[in-house]
Write a structure and sequence with these properties.
heterodimer, A: about 290 residues, mainly alpha, about 70% helix, globular, B: about 575 residues, six-stranded mixed sheet, two-stranded antiparallel sheet, 8 strands, about 60% helix
């Protein structure tokens, strides 16, 4: 077994990179803006862990804090009502969150993938003229395809491990994105272990990982909502809690049966993680973050 | 399902694959990329003279536009030229044939390795490979990687056959050795595969009855690969390899390197080991990234179709589900081992080069990923209640034709208007024009490309004359010296950078892209436009001009060149 301190340092190293990166890149005020929904999600998670049925209520303020996440509380409440708890209370929470969503719709539109782009529409029309038949042109070059393309881009980017462990790719600059590294890259081992364990829990409907239902509902809702945005950059910090839980689970599995080779792996992780933090601070000082 | 139904269904899939890959083969993509032209013209040169364009007899690897090309593809094109003539169709034909033949090999491999889902999985995987944008692209264009994949997969299949009938082990070694000589990626992939398969089946393979076959296979494999391996250590080849390799920092710093860092621990912070490991991990992971697989595809304009990724977006959930069940379930027996092995090792050769998600270098990745997607679909189907299953089938009845139409839309409709430049479209028309210029010299500008090889290709220029007229390196330095001589002479045609100081005072044709000679320059130098090559959308790719030295000298008579021109003309008239 490894000592408590070493465990603490490793976990801190895994989890601190993302908040630190946002803080250094954007300053304290913006950090607080993007971090506040995270606090509500964490509080909601704590309530869920204590089997408190009011947990979705704590997510409703998120729609007011960050209108980009307007649909999130409603979606969680909907999934909660359908799959987890078919009670009057859950229905009430769902209706209440739907009401907040409707109220904020007008502000959401300008941040969403549904924003009109004249250039893009013209491009679709031009490309449509290349097809031999009109119906084929309409099938592939149409207005909904613009939105669908944007949605697909966001969805695949949000489910891309490279986004979280490498800031997409070390040599790639994704536009509309700060390309921040969210977790030390070797922690992908813990993440994959956690993810597999979560998958197994879902498959066998086990109770070992009691909060898997919370994780699934929140992650699906968040990824769906973030994919609806023109740019999900920084807003995706709301994924911090669910991803950290997965990472933490994976890390616990890793150290459960710690043998010599795993100890070596852990040492390499700590050295590489340390270098990533040093690089982060230096880049921040040089203003090249 | 009875045997005849299975064969019938497979034949249908095969015909389907044939149509998809054969439709307008050689015409779409329009144009002929420099590498394709090099493969074709060197094959033509070998056929006519037994030497390549540089005069090297029967090369082990082909020196070509700053690169060394594996030899198998070129030699495969040689016997096709007398039958189909030298054309883009002929050059792309081996890729088409071997791409198509990969489909039955995949079918047979899956059928051999699993009992559960045997028929359904092998048929579905074959079908999805048939319509895979990634595999179709390389089946319609001349890329060695597609041929190498066929030999690689066939070698693996024969290995599994060899576990029952020992003689197949020798054939497997032959196929794997050929694949190793066909494309660079296989040089890394084949040894890893052989070691992994040997390790897995070592108890069986080390039994006395197998030893003689194993040794024979090894010897034969080494004999076939020896010529290629002997070149790997040459300085020319190594120079090229180090330019691509992320672990070599001769040309480029590793990703994440902080410049001008004057700290005591600089060596640690900018540690090559740390940065290169991180870059490798990122590159490796990109081959499993949903963003690349289902949305972006390859950034390279020739290694992807417009608006279509390596896989269809609808396959995304099935990939995740298939991967999960593949890890969890053991019902797939040996197939599970092979798919996981291929999934882990096939991205390695591509991940050590700088470009993320290079579909060319990582083509073998398509095999395990297609099997995983197919397995995901079957798994979902089996988990559904029987009442709901027809809905899934009906959905597929719509999705599949839609996917094929999507492929048609990207590969046939959009590719040429959007990517013609990248496929070097227009040089065929330029070549046709040069045939009409009589004895007047033609200069083709090469400041943004190397059009000489396409000119040679379309002219079917006599390789013997070309070899005599041009020199790059001596034959003793063929594999060593990577120096280039970009200026080429092809009869009356010269490919070089246009020199406005001299070229406008000589009576000749100047051909270039619109950047090399602008409209203003043409006006200023009294050039007469004689050629314009446009793509479907009206974008000008090439322009041709006839120089008018006399008119130019009237406009600016006091230039040194004009005085010289007058003197030459006077001497001419006296002599006459």
């Amino acid at each position: 077994m490894i000592s408590f301190y070493l465990k603490f340092v490793t976990i801190a190293m895994i989890l601190m990179l993302w908040p630190l990166n946002i803080l250094l890149k954007n300053g304290i005020l913006e950090f607080l803006y993007y971090a506040s929904p995270v606090i509500f999600i964490f509080s909601s998670f704590l309530l869920y862990s204590k089997k408190n049925v009011y947990w979705p209520l704590l997510l409703i303020p998120i729609a007011f804090i960050n209108t980009a996440l307007l649909f999130f509380p409603s979606l969680v409440s909907l999934l909660n009502f359908i799959f987890l708890s078919r009670t009057k209370l859950a229905l009430f929470i769902l209706l209440f969150s739907l009401l907040t969503t409707v109220l904020g719709l007008s502000t959401f539109f300008s941040k969403s993938i549904f924003v009109d782009d004249y250039q893009e529409r013209q491009s679709v029309i031009r490309k449509g003229q290349l097809y031999p038949t009109v119906w084929l042109a309409r099938l592939f070059q149409n207005k909904p395809s613009i939105y669908l393309e944007r949605y697909e881009f966001n969805l695949t980017a949000l489910t891309d491990p490279n986004n979280y462990f490498f800031g997409f790719h070390p040599r790639e600059i994704v536009t509309n994105n700060q390309n921040l590294i969210k977790f030390p890259f070797l922690s992908i081992v813990f993440f994959l272990m956690g993810l597999y364990y979560l998958g197994k829990n879902i498959y066998f409907r086990r109770k070992e990982l009691a909060h898997w239902k919370f994780l699934v509902v929140v992650i699906i809702s968040l990824i769906f909502c973030l994919s609806l945005l023109t740019s999900f950059d920084k807003h995706d910090f709301v994924l911090f809690i669910p991803l950290s839980i997965i990472m933490f689970t994976g890390f616990n599995i890793f150290i459960k049966n710690l043998n010599n080779s795993k100890k070596i792996c852990l040492s390499i992780f700590l050295i590489f993680g340390f270098l990533e933090y040093i690089q982060l601070f230096i880049r921040s000082l040089l203003g090249t973050l | 399902m009875n045997k005849y139904k299975i064969i019938g269904l497979f034949i249908l899939i095969f015909i389907f694959g044939f149509i998809i890959r054969f439709y307008q083969l050689g015409k779409v993509p329009a144009g002929l990329y420099i590498d394709e032209a090099a493969l074709g013209y060197n094959a033509y040169s070998i056929l006519k003279t037994g030497k390549d364009e540089f005069g090297k007899p029967w090369p082990i690897v082909f020196r070509s536009v700053g690169d060394f090309k594996a030899p198998i593809y070129t030699y495969l094109v040689v016997p096709l030229i007398p039958i189909f003539d030298l054309s883009p169709f002929t050059v792309r034909l081996p890729s088409f044939i071997f791409g198509l033949l990969t489909v039955p090999i995949l079918f047979l491999l899956i059928s051999r390795l699993t009992d559960k889902y045997r028929i359904s999985l092998s048929l579905l995987s074959a079908l999805l490979l048939t319509v895979s944008p990634w595999h179709v692209l390389f089946g319609r264009t001349a890329y060695e990687t597609n041929v190498a994949l066929f030999f690689y997969l066939f070698g693996v299949y024969l290995f599994y056959l060899g576990l029952r009938k020992k003689l197949f082990l020798i054939l497997s070694a032959v196929m794997l050795a050929i694949s190793l000589s066909t494309y660079h990626s296989e040089r890394i992939l084949v040894p890893i595969t052989v070691i992994a398969l040997f390790w897995k089946f070592k108890e069986q393979l080390l039994q006395p009855g197998y030893k003689i076959f194993l040794i024979s296979a090894l010897i034969l494999g080494i004999i076939i690969t020896l010529p290629s391996l002997s070149i790997i250590s040459s300085s020319g080849f190594l120079a090229r390899a180090s330019g691509l390799n992320i672990f070599s920092h001769q040309r480029q710093q590793p990703a994440g390197f902080i410049d001008n860092l004057q700290l005591p621990a600089e060596g640690l912070i900018n540690s090559n080991f740390f940065l290169s490991t991180r870059e490798f991990a990122s590159l490796y992971l990109s081959y499993f990234s949903p963003r690349y697989m289902f949305n972006l595809g390859d950034y390279g304009p020739r290694s992807s179709f417009p608006e279509l990724s390596a896989f269809y977006f609808w396959q995304f959930p099935f990939y995740i589900i298939g991967l999960f069940y593949l890890l969890k379930e053991r019902s797939l027996k040996q197939l599970r081992f092979l798919v996981l092995l291929l999934l882990v090792i096939t991205p390695i050769p591509a991940a050590i080069t700088r470009d993320p998600y290079s579909t060319t270098r990582a083509l073998p990745v398509v095999i395990p990923q297609i099997i995983i997607i197919s397995f995901g679909i079957l798994k979902i189907y089996s988990l559904l209640q029987p009442k709901i299953r027809p809905i899934l089938l009906l959905t597929f009845a719509f999705i599949l034709p839609y996917s094929v139409l999507h492929l048609y839309s990207s590969a046939i409709v959009l590719n040429d208007p959007q990517r013609a430049k990248e496929w070097n479209y227009g040089l065929e028309q330029v070549t046709q024009f040069t045939k009409t210029t009589g004895s007047i010299p033609v200069v083709v500008d090469n400041s943004r490309g190397e059009p000489y090889i396409q000119l040679l290709f379309y002219l079917k220029y006599d390789p013997d004359i070309y070899q005599k007229e041009n020199f790059e390196v001596s034959l003793s330095e063929y594999y060593i010296n990577i120096e280039r001589n970009k200026d080429k002479k092809i009869g009356i045609i010269t490919t070089r950078t246009i020199d406005f100081e001299k070229d406008i005072f000589i009576d000749q044709y100047l051909i270039s892209d619109p950047l090399a000679i602008s409209d203003n320059q043409a006006k200023e130098h009294a050039l007469t436009q004689v050629l314009e090559v446009k793509n479907i959308q009206g974008e000008v790719f090439f322009k041709g001009y006839r120089t008018n030295p006399a008119t130019k000298c009237k406009l600016s008579p006091n230039t040194k060149q004009c005085t010289e021109l007058v003197r030459i003309n006077e001497e001419k008239s006296i002599y006459e």
